[in-house]
Amino acid sequence: SQTIHQWPATLVQPVGSPLSLECTVEGTSNPNLYWYRQAAGRGLQLLFYSVGIGQISSEVPQNLSASRPQDRQFILSSKKLLLSDSGFYLCAWSEPTGFLFSPLHFGNGTRLTVT
Amino acid sequence: KQEVTQIPAALSVPEGENLVLNCSFTDSAIYNLQWFRQDPGKGLTSLLLIQSSQREQTSGRLNASLDKSSGRSTLYIAASQPGDSATYLCAVSRDTGFQKLVFGTGTRLLVSP
Question: Among A56, A100, A105, which would you mutate to test the B interface (most chain B Cβ atoms within 10 Å of its Cβ)?
Fold first, then answer.
């Protein structure tokens, strides 16, 4: 069966510090991968998605970047965090492109607080 | 721009009641709609996925319907239990292949024993 791992679960970082959140998926090949953010009082917003190694699409301009160095590894980064980067970050995967009706499967999330 | 609205924002019911959660979306050109459950501080669990060509999907005590032309979906929960307490989110996908979902802000459900 497929599993998705996301870490750390919680993180407190000062403004201006770097960020690296990691997500790995097991039990599937060539998944589509996604980073979503859930800010306080707001719905989930898609930040990045990837259909393959090194292929990243950004949905909104922001202070964050994403990378996919391996097939089942997805990393969210920032060089200098802003207060507005605080939120609940969720990694997710779905079946490869071509599976039109694949559900989205989420990790347990990382609660990021920028102080 | 697609907007997804969920009503009510919060709902409190006694155990055993049947209940309906509502979701509406402004652009009917969707490929599928998903209902998720989110427990406090946790990630999302996929409950049901309805393809745009389908009218409803069922899983156990859950039944989701889709009226694409009117931009509405409902999630029906039969015989509610305290373990059903969570936030329920609906989301629509506007692309084939990629699940670039647009989410509603959710309905927070509390089922009391």
Answer: A100
Q: Which of A46, A90, A102 is nearest residue B44 as measured by Cβ atoms?
A: A90
> A54 — contact with chain B (CB < 8 Å)?
no
Q: What is the mean pLDDT of each run of 10 residues along chain A (115 residues)?
A: 92 97 94 91 87 89 91 96 94 79 88 96
Q: How many CA atoms lie within 13 A of A56 on its CB side?
A: 18
Contact A7, A108 (CB under 8 A): no
Q: Do A111 and B103 touch (CB under 8 A)?
A: no
Token readout for A46 is 């898609």
Beta bridge partners of B1: none
**Dihedral angle over CA of B29, A102, A89, A73, nearest 10:** -130
Q: DSSP characters for chain B? A: ---EEEE-SEEEEETT--EEEEEEES----SEEEEEEE-TTS-EEEEEEEETT-SEEEETTEEEEEETTTTEEEEEE-S--GGG-EEEEEEEE-SSSS--EEE---EEEEEE-
Share of chain B above pLDDT 90, in %: 76
CA distance A108 to B99: 18
Residue A80: its pLDDT value, please? 96
Task: Find, among B55, B59, B38, B56, the residue nearest to B103 by Cα.
Answer: B38
pLDDT digits (tens, 9 = 90+) for B74-89: 999 999 999 999 999 9
